[in-house]
Amino acid sequence: MKQNPILKVIQKTLGEQPILICMYLISSEYCSCANDFKTNPRFQLHPGNNGTNLTITDLKLSDSATYYCVNQYLNVFDFTEGYNVIVEGSGLTIDQPASQSIQAEGSVTLNCTVHTGWTCDGDHTVYWFRNSGPSQLGLMHSHTGRNKQCERKTNTCFYSFSMKNLNTSQTGTYICAVAACGHILFGNGTKLVCGGECSNFVQIIFCIL
Questions:
Q1: Which CATH number fits domain 93-194: 3.30.870.10, 2.40.50.840, 2.60.40.10, 2.30.38.10?
Q2: What residue segments make up the domains of the chain, in order of their start?
Q3: Eight-state DSSP code of residue 58
Q4: pLDDT digit string (tens) for 113-166?
Q5: Would you put residue 140 in left (φ > 0), alpha (ψ -120 to 50) or beta?
Q6: N- to C-terminal Cα distance for the chain?
Q7: Whole-prediction pTM
């Protein structure tokens, strides 16, 4: 029995698994949408002579993603070049304290407040970088932000990163970055500066008479 090719439209958002939106059986000209797109009238597939087009109406921030058209024949999948859709006007902002004072062998908690501009449904990926000089931006830590760290009423999320047993080599600017809805936004950073007892060494002077 001859197997006819199937066209599939895939959505891939940052940090998430690819999701099938719709598929089109070329031989029968049959269209069908999958997952949550079945009942979402904003996503419509329009077959044509040379393939099919996907139309998204009433764009939302969550539509920011890379979209692929996949030609499937038996177990062979041919991916076209992806189309990046970025919905502007996210309102995503990040606030960080400008500076914090540290003490030798002490501890510090860096705070990052994210104003999402949309509901906090779905997880964010939070990155913490340390900038210790020109071209010296290094990744210190990353984690997934959970819904329990967000306030739905204000669309605000709160993240933190703690360090212990500090020493003078850990001064610098620590930058919070958040990946959400196809965007990565960097904060201005918090500069860690030495307090009055920041020195973690003892200078011994020998005086020989």
A1: 2.60.40.10
A2: 6-85, 93-194
A3: S
A4: 988 765 445 667 889 999 876 656 788 888 886 666 777 777 788 899 999 988
A5: alpha
A6: 103
A7: 0.52
